[in-house]
Every structure is written in C-alpha cells, then in structure tokens.
Amino acid sequence: MLETAPAPATAPADPTPPRDLAIDALRAFAISGVVLGHWLVTALVADGSGQHLRVTSPLKTMPNLTPISWVLQTLAVFFLVGGYAAAKGLRPGRPWVPRLRHRLARFARPLPVLLIAWLPAAAVLRWAGFSADGVRTLIELVISPLWFLGVYVLLTAATPVIAAVWARLRLHGAALLVAATALIDLGRFALDTPAWTGWATVLTGWLVPFYLGIGWADGALRSRRAGLVLLAGGAAATAGLVLVAGYPASMVGVPGAAVSNLSPPTLAAVSFGLAQTGLALLLHGPLTRWTRRARARAAISAARRASMTIFLWHQTALLTVTVGALLAFGSLPGLHTVPDQPEWVAERLAWLAVFAALLTALAAVVHRFEHPRAAPGCDIRHHTPRRSWMVERRRCRRHARSSPSAPDGSGEPWPAPCPSRRSC
Questions:
Q1: N or C, which terminus of the chain has less Cβ within 10 Å?
Q2: Is the peptide bond before 415 cis (omega within 30 degrees of 0)?
Q3: Burial class for 194, CB neighbours closer than 10 Å (0-12, 13-18, 19+)
Q4: pLDDT in tens, 348-392
Q5: What's the alpha-carbon Rg for the chain, to the nearest Å?
C-alpha cells in the first residue's frame, strides 16, 4: 500500500485588503505640508539681550506670501485619508475596540517621550537665562500642533457610528455638516453669540473630510467628475467667502489677526478643505501609478513608518536649531531676524536643510517608540477574531521560550522571522 504524506497545514487567508499606497502617499504629503508650513511661517525673533524670543510670522509682515498657506495647510487631506483608513479597518463580525486600541497605540506610545524630553529641556533653557514666559512660549510651540490629534482620535473612535451615518445619509450628511459650520459662523460673526460656541466647528469642520474619507472607502467619489466638482466648488466658495464675506485669505493663523481660519476652523477652512479633497481624489490615480515604482514604494513605506515621529518632533527640531544657534552664535539671518524683507524667505529656505537634518537624527533615536520591535518569530497575521493583538503577542513569546516548533502546528522551525512590522 502506498503511503501518502499528510498535506501541509495552510494558514487561513488573510482578510486584510492590500494596502493602498496612494493613500499613504497622500498622508505623507499632508504631514510634509504641516511640517514645512510650520518651518516657513513660524519666525522666532531675538531681542537685544539675545535671551528672549518672540513669535511672529512672515505672513504678518509680508501679506503677499499668503498663497504659501494655500499650499501648506493640508489638514483636510490628513483627515480625509484618516477617514478612509479607519473605514477600511472596519470588518463585519469583528469587534472595533481591539482594532481601535491597536490603531491608537501608535499615537499613545511616542507622545509621552516627547513630553518627558521637554522637562529637562525646559530646565536647561531656564538655566541658560530664558525667562519663564519665554520657555512657556517655546513649549507652546511644541504642543500646539497636537490639538488635532485629539480630534483625530475622537473621530477614529467614532468610525462605526460615522460609517453608519454615511450608509444612511450619503452625501447629504456632508451637506449637513457644512451647514452646521455655516450656522456656527453666523452666530459667531453676525449674531454675537458667546465666543466659545465657535469651537464647535473643531468637530463639525474636520468631520467633513473625515466623513468624505469614509464615503470614499465605501466606493463613493470615485469618478473624475466628483473630484472636479469638489475642487472647483470648494475653490469658488472659498474665494467668495474671502472676497465677499471678509474671511481671512490666509488658511493658517497670523499673529495679531482678529480672525483665524484655523482657531477655530471657519466655513472658509471647510470649503478650502473640500477643494483639497477634490484635488486628492484627482491625484489618487496618478499616485497609484507612481507608487508602482520600487523607489517610490520604499520612500512611502519609510514615510509611513516615521509619520508620527516626524509630526511630533518637527517643532523640536526647529526650536533646537533656533535656540542652540542663538546661544552659540547670536542672532543669525533667517533664523532670528524680523521676517519683513523678501531676503528673509531665501535665508529661511537655507535653514530648512538644517531643520530636516536634525529631525532625521531625532527620528533615528525616537522612532522605536512609534514601532516597538516585535517578538522574534511572532506572526500574528492569522489570529482569531476573539484574540486581541496583545494576547497573540504574549502567546507567541511563551511558545518561543518553550517549544522548538511553530505554534500553528505546521512543523516549521521556530522562531521564524517576523514577516512584517504591520502584521506583528
């Protein structure tokens, strides 16, 4: 009688859809816009003593630079791709909370490191002669960009609810959110309602692109016509609000301005975000083709792995260079001088390479907190829905210590190399 070898055990098919690298590219561009925007429009001017820095902006002294804010204010794109990614993470019949915990851990891990690092940094600045108010100003520059992470976490947590609303209301839901933002602005600017009511637009305003991202993931907004309508309609509405209704032309805050389009978000910021959404939809196809190249995939993958590190530490890089150079060399052009001449822009552009170099060095040190190393051999791509990510991780570690063979019964050598950081 012929003996047949038992068929090798096969792992269950991974239900996770292939990663959309064009979405990763859009996220990378959005974060790059935020970083470059802060580096270009945040000017720290040294006083005569050389031990105090005041914050200003070239947009205040050179209003003709306002179009820079139209290019580098990219928060709507970040919320758009955030909604898309969150919706793609929903799985029928699988609980959302474990997946949410896994997604939000990426925010929770590196943030305390930044805050802890600034405790001794503040003490060093006080020892170097900076006033308490000056140190407070610098720390505010570090933590002020973090406000939107709270909004992003809240919207991500509410993804199942928002997706259910999309399934019922479709694009009418986005229209209701825009209308709500318009009513809040009407009360704020025309009806003299309390100033705190305007902060409701932090939710209604940024929920618009997040909601549209969920719709995009559901298969809506795929046509070129949808992208063109959003781009043209959003741009026209923004122009009308600026030219007729008197909204600020700058899409970022300007020191000393009576109204900011971001603090809190105004109807102009929302309409501008709709235009950015349309542009992102139109760019998705070309970006998909671009990311088929090996070098492009490698660049996008690297940017994705370090995205939170880059966002959290970019202001620290700016301030380290600015303060360190002031203490070592005194006031330098483009770094500590008043941004009131076109030459300042050229000088600041030269400093961007220094900021980027220091940010790269910081990222090399702290990126491990964004993506902690997985246990050797821990392949949890095929974990059961009932087991959380941490349960599977502990199971793999225990088995690695106690057994020479793989825990899935395949008989393969153990531990085996982890196939990817995303799966472990």
A1: N
A2: yes
A3: exposed
A4: 999 999 999 999 999 988 877 766 555 454 444 444 444 444 555
A5: 24
**pLDDT at position 111, please?**
87
- Give Dmax (Cα) for the chain: 97
CA–CA distance, 419 with 16 (Å, rounded to integer): 15
Q: Given a cut of 90, is residue 96 above it in pLDDT?
A: no
The Cα angle at residue 49 between residues 43 and 51, in degrees rounded to 5:
60
Instruction: Give the closest residue to 266 by CA, choosing from 208, 198, 192, 173.
Output: 198
Q: What is the pTM of this model?
A: 0.83
Residue 353: how many other CB atoms lie within 10 Å? 9
pLDDT at 101 (0 to 100): 85
CA-based torsion, 72, 271, 57, 358: positive or negative = negative
d(CA 177, CA 23): 24
Contact 69, 41 (CB under 8 A): yes
